[in-house]
Amino acid sequence: MLTADSVLGTVLAVCALVAVIGVAVWATRIPAAVVAVPAAVLLAVLGVVSWGQIGTELEFIGPTIGFLAAMLVIAEVCARTGVFAWIGAVLARSSRGSPTRLLGLVFAAAAVTTAVLSIDTTIVLLTPVAVATARRIGARVTPVGAATAHLANSASTLLPVSNLTNLLAFSATGLGFLGFAGLMAGPWVAAIVVEYLLFRWFFADQLRPPRDADRPADTAGTVRRPPIGTLIALGLILVGFVVAEPLGVPLAVVAAIGAVVMVAPLMRRTPLSTTVRVVRAANIGFLAFVAALGVIILPIRLGPIGDAIATLIPSGTQLWALLAVAALAAVIANLLNNLPATLLLLPMVAHEPGLALAMLLGVNIGPNLGYFGSLANLLWRDLMHRHTAAPTTRRFLLLGTVTVPPTLVAAVVALWAGLRVLG
């Protein structure tokens, strides 16, 4: 009989995971859910994973998937109401034609966007704005483009809502919203500062003002009014996350209410087009992919592979233990992609919040090493191909080799210090 403990069951689960990730990475025209959902059902039918285990897993990740859908809709409203067009105008005007100043501004914008609206928003909505702004002032595109990719990963550690990996781990840690943010604030700042300094060094030649400036850089542009209503709504949603969580109100409920409130004015003006945009923004296919991936990773986690990895997890929250867990998580994220890595490792570290947070640093910062590390990287690569030229795999790997180890170490040390002070 096939089970997660059997050799054949483990082989089937690994083959299913490889097939699903392969489609997600290479066959970008085929929705990953088209392969992931049947693969998950097949594992259940064959008995590799039981329907009861599937129900438990879906019950665990269901609120996370609902929250993700609501935040995707909120990001769409932000784009439609001009938040990112306004950010682009602010970047161009504030940079005053300086590529170095623009890089710093893009770092700040990407860090805040990722923390508040999540990793995918930074990739899909901020990257085109950063690229267009660089061209507008006559700066090189590569540094600011790479900044949005790296910050989408490494700046996604601050809040439970910043990344799907955070959402999965949030409830398992037992920390409150403010407790999570308090412990991750130090690592968030450390990662951003270290990565910015490394970017300044790595892209030094590309941050010099262009010599052949045939025309003055366009830094004025059209003066745009900030979308006050949308920005206020975002602020209220964040306040809602902080206030509702101690009262036992799920974050998904707050996000759903926020999405409905933000969509309502657009729905009154253009109901049909808004409905279409909302459905597309919610990305049902991706949500199904996430749910199926949780099922596919189950027999791997419960089988001999999971048992072997569990023996590598240290106990306690000493600095060396946090560094070991973060490094292990970074390696597995680059082998399996960060979402399966989180689903695999989370039950092994959930007993100790410090280790769970170190794991998050590994699966969030580690993917900057290579394109395969996160789905956001692959999405960014496709966007850059459409807007300019994405760095080669070798160049991306070189940048990751330079930035990931020191950034990850700095973040883990900051986490260790925070645990000593706040823990």
UniProtKB/TrEMBL annotation:
Q: Which InterPro entries match?
A: Arsenical_pump_ArsB, Cit_transptr-like_dom
In the bilayer, the protein is annotated as: Multi-pass membrane protein
What positions does the domain Citrate transporter-like occupy? 26-351
TM region positions: 6-27, 34-54, 60-90, 102-126, 177-203, 249-266, 278-300, 320-346, 355-376, 396-419
Molecular functions per Gene Ontology: arsenite transmembrane transporter activity
Main localisation, per the record?
membrane
Keywords per UniProt: Arsenical resistance, Cell membrane, Membrane, Transmembrane, Transmembrane helix, Transport
**Pfam families (UniProt xref):** CitMHS
Q: Where in the cell is it found?
A: Cell membrane
Q: GO terms for biological process? A: response to arsenic-containing substance
Annotated GO CC locations: plasma membrane
Superkingdom assignment: Bacteria
Q: Does the keyword Membrane apply?
A: yes
The protein's matches in PANTHER family, at most eight in alphabetical order, are given as: TRANSPORTER ARSB-RELATED
Which family, according to UniProt?
Belongs to the CitM (TC 2.A.11) transporter family. Belongs to the ArsB family.
Which protein is depicted? Arsenic transporter
Q: Which organism is it from?
A: Gordonia desulfuricans
